[in-house]
Amino acid sequence: MFSTFELRPPMYVRLLLWLLAVTAYSVIVISVFEEYHVPESTLGDAITTVLGLAIGVLLVFRNRASYDRWWEARTLWGCLINESRNLAIKTAAFADIELAEQHHFADLLIAFPHALRMHLRGERDPLPEIEAVYPEIKQIQHRPGFVVLQIFKYLDRWNRDDTLHASIRIIERNANTLMEICGACERIRNTPMVPSYRYMAWGSVILYTLAGPWVVGVDQGWFTIPIVLLASCFMIGMEMVAETIEEPFGKEKDDLPLDRYCETIERFIRETLPAPTATADAVAG
Amino acid sequence: MFSTFELRPPMYVRLLLWLLAVTAYSVIVISVFEEYHVPESTLGDAITTVLGLAIGVLLVFRNRASYDRWWEARTLWGCLINESRNLAIKTAAFADIELAEQHHFADLLIAFPHALRMHLRGERDPLPEIEAVYPEIKQIQHRPGFVVLQIFKYLDRWNRDDTLHASIRIIERNANTLMEICGACERIRNTPMVPSYRYMAWGSVILYTLAGPWVVGVDQGWFTIPIVLLASCFMIGMEMVAETIEEPFGKEKDDLPLDRYCETIERFIRETLPAPTATADAVAG
Amino acid sequence: MFSTFELRPPMYVRLLLWLLAVTAYSVIVISVFEEYHVPESTLGDAITTVLGLAIGVLLVFRNRASYDRWWEARTLWGCLINESRNLAIKTAAFADIELAEQHHFADLLIAFPHALRMHLRGERDPLPEIEAVYPEIKQIQHRPGFVVLQIFKYLDRWNRDDTLHASIRIIERNANTLMEICGACERIRNTPMVPSYRYMAWGSVILYTLAGPWVVGVDQGWFTIPIVLLASCFMIGMEMVAETIEEPFGKEKDDLPLDRYCETIERFIRETLPAPTATADAVAG
Amino acid sequence: MFSTFELRPPMYVRLLLWLLAVTAYSVIVISVFEEYHVPESTLGDAITTVLGLAIGVLLVFRNRASYDRWWEARTLWGCLINESRNLAIKTAAFADIELAEQHHFADLLIAFPHALRMHLRGERDPLPEIEAVYPEIKQIQHRPGFVVLQIFKYLDRWNRDDTLHASIRIIERNANTLMEICGACERIRNTPMVPSYRYMAWGSVILYTLAGPWVVGVDQGWFTIPIVLLASCFMIGMEMVAETIEEPFGKEKDDLPLDRYCETIERFIRETLPAPTATADAVAG
Amino acid sequence: MFSTFELRPPMYVRLLLWLLAVTAYSVIVISVFEEYHVPESTLGDAITTVLGLAIGVLLVFRNRASYDRWWEARTLWGCLINESRNLAIKTAAFADIELAEQHHFADLLIAFPHALRMHLRGERDPLPEIEAVYPEIKQIQHRPGFVVLQIFKYLDRWNRDDTLHASIRIIERNANTLMEICGACERIRNTPMVPSYRYMAWGSVILYTLAGPWVVGVDQGWFTIPIVLLASCFMIGMEMVAETIEEPFGKEKDDLPLDRYCETIERFIRETLPAPTATADAVAG
Fold first, then answer.
1. Would you call A227 and B180 a contact, using CB atoms and an 8 Å cutoff?
2. Domains in chain C, number
3. Is residue A268 part of a domain?
């Protein structure tokens, strides 16, 4: 299971590197203070006040927006679990079909979250169960869409065979939502925060970190370092968490455990539409 | 009714233990001040200012998010009450079925909230009425899903017998929502706050509590203790309330009274679909 | 029209009593200052700063949440007006029924808001028009649910008689919403704010009021009283408004005028489904 | 086109009158300072701090709530445009009817936004096209409801004639929304902000303005006037904007251009359902 | 592809011009300070405090509202992608039609986002594929509405021919949403922020910039310039970003990449409903 997602070092490593840089910079600034007598000035004070306000406003705003995206993504995958379950339950309750067909339909329902997960992460692992029946999927770019199309084709055939007893609209509604969830997830993945806000947030944080030791150093001497580190840790940390949860489909610690959700769906569908054979769980691998 | 939920001591006990620890720590710090002459310094002042801001931002953000989850959970159970009522009313109004069958259907409607409540709390008390009719439920992992499946099977049979006079879609919509509510509740239960925010919030609170007595102690002597206690009480209290209502399905004082909701549903359904026998209320026990 | 709702004195009376108590307390504190020389201390200052922050955070949070509930309740009754109107319009447009039956149906539509209003306020005035036709309603606990059941029974009969020409689903959707509105109103009425937040808000306000005169009195002498009164008036006032609008179905000045909404519905339904007799307005009494 | 709406002078005039009063009052206060030696006191300072906080909290809260209402009203009229367009498009696509009837139906669709606009503003201009066909509308109190009733009667007739080929539910959904929009707009118009918040906001602003010159005047002399004017301009301005956009259906500069929305609807419907005669645009006058 | 959209210089150019003006003004103010001895006064201090608060409140409020609009616009285009995909999938699954007709229908589905994009930007490039079949579109003002009308006409014909097997309502729902998206996008484009808020925001920013150098200059001399520039950069930048994302359909860096969304839709539809000929991609040009 190789993925193109983890080229960037994980968040805590990046935070540590930043803090090391801040420490080094502070040490240099304080050494300058110790060596030469820097005339006292309120310039730095004025600058950090202005920047502090800007950073406060931007960080609150940005973390709120990022968290809303993260929670929306979580809600979407929760919906996906619901709709998959409802599809399985309704198929078991309404459709008058034989076990083998039911089993193939269950394969499609299980394949959708896996296909969506890989689609969102830019991965392309094989879906063996599906490829066995629909070899053309290997050429398809948008695999979740292809799986939904096959689900709809089943529904249409059952409708025409009258095995659904006029309840097609009942089942269709849930299948329709699958594609809506897919689109909403793509929207979250493809739309970063308004770029200008990101530049302003980073710009303020960096200027603040550059000005910080000069301001604090006048009074505190070597005690400057823990103060500056604390402030940087908070500001850079908040910004980094915001950036991480803004893209909630990755594999960092704060990201959503998509693999676990896929398993939850799979387990429920297998319990509701039990397979006649035991080869089914190869899909999840 | 044994549950795995109450291993953690209740919130006010944990808060008390924290405050005791803070008091002990403050007493030690103040004793040090009294014993030795600590040179005055603005270091602590700078640190508490930085931390105070961070804590303010994080606590507001965190409590808002937790409260939103709590209120969403409340709304979901409110919906569950609505949908159960509507299902009972519509069954009474539209379905042309005999009393005994109506009674069994009412059992299923009543069993769903109980099954969901236990599912959310990790409990597994028996559902005697349901187990009498469907003994296979004892092997089922996801009991709410199983109950909904039986509800759908009733609807399907009535639809095929034409006792619903083409109004299946009217009733189905409410049954569909049952599963959606179940999934949304599971989402709230299974998704804690973004971990990094929790670490940052606790980290800031602990650092603040550690630094607090050193800063206040310089001016206030033994009066430091009530001040530090008040601030800790507020900060730790807010954080703890946020953690408690983040998981609204437990049994603490701030959690949702799920048992009462289940009874509300049961009472209404029994009034609308009266049982021919009086053994029905054994389910709720 | 007797009700169990007004045992508590109205809000402005309670606010006045609070302010009297605060004045008396301040007078005592200032007298102490005048009599004895109290050593100057920054203790009170530190305490009011900590409490002021806590109160600010809690009041903003609490008023926002309460106002959201109030507005949701208003929206729900707005929806109720809509759905009642749509039901009346659709009955007039689609159902091929004689005037007397139409009139009885209009009675049910008018009775629902009245039943819901009384249900939310814990009142039980008679509904003469409904009791004349359905005497069993006197034994029913949940009267809004009973009214909706009768509405659905009409719809079912019209559907089976084919007087609706397959448009039952069009009308049913609006009737379904009636019960959803009822459940949502009950949710708002039955779920107070998370208790811990209320305790923290009141605790902070009371501590602040107790500490206030000691802090202000050092500098201001008898001028302390207007300052402390202003601050108390704002804090206690905000908290009281929050508590009042948290339960928007009462009869205080800030609560929703449910009686007026009921009349609006009644007037529209009578205009759309005019009664053959003039005895109809006895229901509203 | 006479209306009862503009008895109040427009916002900027009221703001100007307020600022004149503030200036006059400040001049008097400063004259007193110049004439007599007022002993320096921190009383005013303490009062303005308390009031400043209260005003900040109340203004932010109030403007947010008012803006949300304004935006909701805008969204509702946006929905009205959508639903009118969809009704016109679907009538053109699905209904198998002759041009004259189509033209009358288009008249109804166009009359609805005009009737709603006048209903929300308390106006009652004639709707000549509608009155020609339905003279009874002159006695009707709730004209938008009457128009929707006629729309539903058309749909019902087409449904019974089978000119809709079972697509009545497709068209009905949009007609149903018309009445929902009407009710939601009435809700916004009829429900002012919780009265207690308004009293508290105005009370704080007036007290602040009264106390302001006494506080600032000690240090600044005649420079007090621009400072007090700036602060008043901001506070009174924010409050007035909040009050204006709270009632978004009026005719002030910040209100919604309802006339323009009505024209947009009319233009689209005439393009989609072209009239056989040219007398149609008399409705809009 | 000429457009009337880019007459205004891009955001960073406007920001730069503002900052140049601010620098020039500061230089003049500081020169005055250097030349003449300006008596120290706290007037400016008081003014910037008042204005700073006003600006903070207004900027936070304004950026939140603008960002909400931007995100809503993004969500609407995400929905458009979903609905287009679902329409294509359902057409492929349910409709029993020949390839040529399918291809024409796909042309309509692809033309809609392009027509909407141009409609929102005030552009009118040709849509060759559509104009070949429907030459009357050249006279049509509201081209997206015309495209949806043709989509509905296809659905109506298929419904009457019974090629949809009673699943018209399933497909219609998605087509209905197309028009809703169009209307919601027009609402966002046509409704700027409440004008009074814009005036107040710009007024405060300009007054603040005018007063700034006088206040800072007293203490800082020539160091005034970086401080004033930083503050201006933040305030004017925030206001400009808010203005830009308020109108998210333009072509600036922060605006939504509508062209890319159109291509995404086109690619998916061509994959799901493959064209028998290869001339299809001429539409996108």
1. no
2. 1
3. yes
